[in-house]
Please model this.
Amino acid sequence: MNYWFILNAVLFMSAVMLYIRDSSVAVLMAVCGLAFILFNWNMHAIFSKIRNLDNRNERIRIAGRARKIMPFHVVSGIVGLAFIVLHILLIYLRYDVTYMKFKAVSGGVAFAVLSAVVVSGYLRRKKATGKRRLAHLYLSMLLFWIMALHIIW
Model:
């Protein structure tokens, strides 16, 4: 099992525990958005698994599944972004802008990076290059860790 699956599960369970502690609609939107984003992030784990396998038949089988999942990757990325926008709007309406300053700053940075991930994914879909692939990958990794800070802190 890829360690990204484990990190995704830990992050998602942390978000669910936060929702149990503060069961508001705004946090529910965040958990839903996170579920879609982590589903997309699991594509990296799948591609890492394909690269690390020695058995060619196994690589072909997993690559075939990844190809079938890929159309959902785009849709779930957009749906995840929509849930996060709803989360931001609900938080803005519920709290003052200066409420929990670190939470607000980390959330703003996470939203900016999420927007950059979506744009880089769109550009990569238009024309795939090595630089665009790496930009999408590194922005996604940065997003994961910023989201983890935002959720856990």
Q: What stands out?
A: The chain has a mean pLDDT of 89. Residues 3-152 form one domain. The radius of gyration is 16 Å. The longest helix spans residues 56-94.
